[in-house]
Design goal:
Radius of gyration: 19 Å
Number of domains: 2
Structural class: alpha+beta
Strand order of the largest sheet: 1-5-6-4-3-2
Largest sheet: 6 strands, mixed
Number of strands: 6
Number of helices: 8
Strand content: 15-25%
Shape: elongated
Helix content: 40-55%
Length: 219
């Protein structure tokens, strides 16, 4: 929709009506926009890819804000609809959420298609990886298993993973899935497996994935 500079807009914060958080709001020509995603100054290509995906492919009214040290993408909202709005997670939380949803979807497919015995083997391998590679909030066997068995919406909070943790998990998940299923078809159902994510957050994850070597595996 628009590519704007900082001097073109006014940015403020408001209290979210149902969550204990401040929500950044961008004002431009009488319209209000909510922050969807933030990129470093070196990530111009990624920022514009997400902005174009939202505006051209999804028909959303979005602003791309160019600043000296960063780029940010904002989606148009009506403030009275903020409670129903999406995009409450940070970039790293979005990557974490998506990777957990993919992990759980692959586990359920193994259980449904290959049976409980193979699902148990898979669970043992994944929990071993989470523990051996020292994933935050997965140090114990019980906490590692919760990444497979507890829906993210039911977790007290998402684990504090970094981008490197997500990359490690998706690489190992792809490797194990290929071994268990005997092919890579499981990795080509990405959007279907992420239907529980808000659309804007799902697009943030897919845009990130497309810019990484993992995109060749999971698309």
């Amino acid at each position: 929709m628009f590519i704007l500079k900082r001097q073109d807009v006014e940015i403020s914060t408001i209290q979210h009506p149902t969550r204990d958080q401040q929500v950044p709001i961008l004002h431009y020509q009488g319209q209000t926009f909510r922050l969807i995603s933030v990129f470093k100054g070196s990530q111009e290509v990624e920022a514009k890819a997400l902005w174009r995906s939202l505006t051209d492919n999804r028909g959303k009214a979005c602003v791309l804000l160019e600043e000296p040290e960063r780029y940010s993408v904002w989606g148009k909202i009506r403030l009275e609809k903020l409670e129903d709005d999406t995009g409450s997670h940070s970039n790293t939380e979005i990557l974490t959420l998506a990777s957990i949803l993919l992990l759980q979807a692959v586990y359920l497919d193994i259980e449904d298609l290959l049976g409980n015995r193979q699902a148990s083997f898979f669970e043992k391998e994944i929990t071993g990886i989470l523990q051996q590679k020292q994933f935050p909030q997965a140090s114990s066997l019980e906490s590692a298993k919760s990444m497979i068995t507890v829906e993210p919406s039911q977790m007290p909070k998402l684990p504090t993973w970094q981008e490197t943790h997500v990359i490690i998990l998706l690489e190992d998940l792809y490797r194990l899935g290929k071994t268990y299923f005997g092919d890579t078809n499981f990795a080509h159902q990405l959007e279907d497996r992420l239907q529980d994510m808000p659309e804007e957050e799902r697009l943030v994850f897919i845009a990130w994935l497309n810019q990484s070597p993992l995109g060749k595996l999971w698309q």
